[in-house]
Write a structure and sequence with these properties.
The protein is mainly beta. The chain has four helices and 16 strands. One of its GO terms (cellular component) is axoneme.
């Protein structure tokens, strides 16, 4: 198998780009004079890469049969089905084979750089792309603040049906990296935050003064932000502005209360409240309330069992012709309240429970 490396040029319409350079690997099979072309996959390229041409005999554009290995050389243009492939180099085996067959090889050519990849690389290496909002840019935290998580009960201001409205949420503050995270409350307990709680705002550092322009954060100017929101600004009751949206802090949990007392001298703060929340169904509409979601105990046959209901218990053993089964002992329980009985084996699981 002869192996060549090359590229083809793809023109781009719009988007500020004129063309793209797409490297390929060209395989020529001496057994059946077939050609296969593979484009190496580039991560996150957005292109359909891989096998561009399956193994097959390719007709010559001049109409004189199929492409033959004697017609291949470095620096030439390989025209296949209207696409122009430039052969730039080959592997050592291909070079040795062609020279041994009397082919005079041209000098290898470098594959040009792709303008789009150069642009992406320059953006990735630019120091101005750093963001002060991201947690990794925060300075190292003191040992006493590592792993500390503060939890506040908040109301987020929004619009519902064209009218101003507020929705309950939980604000999680991490003094270690000065980040704020907003989550919707759990459907069962407003004070309980779990991994599956919907996230309103991922953990980011929030500037104390809103510096947004035209409704978005200017990444290039994030380094100019001075002060960030700290626990001092979240002592309930308080109002803070998180990226243009008003958030009202109305309470906190016990751990946060102790943290504020030890670090900021706050004597007492309102506790977090348990509120009724609705769980949306699959269609997105409001579903059952919290009281409907909490599972209720199973009532036997719909009757309330009095505390003094009589229960008859009998001991029994299995009547079996097998000697090894004769030592098995059972308990038969009969419930007078609903005429049901159950059979259980000692030190074993329940065997039978029916009416």
């Amino acid at each position: 198998v002869l192996r060549f490396s090359g590229y083809f040029t793809e023109r781009i319409e719009g988007g500020g780009q004129v063309y793209r350079i797409r490297p390929v690997v060209i395989y020529y099979y001496l057994l059946d004079d077939a050609i296969m072309i593979i484009e190496p996959k580039t991560p996150n390229s957005g292109l359909e890469q891989g096998r561009l041409l399956s193994r097959q005999q390719v007709p010559h554009p001049d109409g004189g049969g199929f492409w033959h290995w004697t017609q291949l050389n470095l620096g030439m243009i390989l025209s296949i089905y209207g696409r122009q492939f430039v052969i730039c180099d080959c592997d050592p085996f291909t070079k040795e084979y062609l020279i041994s067959e009397g082919t005079e090889l041209n000098n290898p050519l470098p594959i040009p750089s792709d303008p789009y990849n150069l642009l992406r690389r320059s953006r990735a290496e630019s120091p101005s792309r750093g963001s002060d909002l991201r947690p990794r840019s925060a300075p190292p935290a003191p040992p006493g603040l590592r792993g500390v998580v503060l939890k506040f009960d908040v109301l987020v201001e929004g619009v519902d049906g064209g009218q101003p409205a507020v929705s309950p949420a939980v604000l999680i503050y991490r003094p270690e990296d000065l980040t704020i995270e907003l989550r919707q409350p759990s459907y069962f307990d407003h004070t309980e935050i779990k991994k599956f709680s919907p996230i309103l705002l991922r953990a980011v550092r929030v500037p104390l003064t809103d510096t947004r322009k035209s409704g978005f954060v200017d990444i290039g100017e994030e380094s100019e932000v001075g002060d960030w929101i700290t626990p001092r600004h979240l002592i309930p009751p308080a109002n803070v502005n998180i990226f243009g949206r008003r958030v009202m802090v109305i309470g906190c949990d016990n751990y946060t209360n102790l943290f504020l007392k030890d670090n900021y001298g706050v004597e007492s703060t309102p506790p977090m409240k348990r509120v009724e929340t609705t769980k949306p169904d699959e269609s997105g509409s409001s579903g059952k309330t919290q009281s409907d979601i909490v599972p209720r105990p199973i009532i036997r046959r719909g009757l309330l069992i009095p505390k003094d209901a009589a229960v008859l218990r009998f001991s029994a053993k299995l009547d079996s012709p097998e000697d090894k089964e004769g030592d098995r002992k059972f308990i038969i329980t009969y419930h007078l309240i609903d005429d049901t009985f159950e059979i259980s084996e000692l030190d074993q699981i329940q065997l039978l429970h029916y009416l």
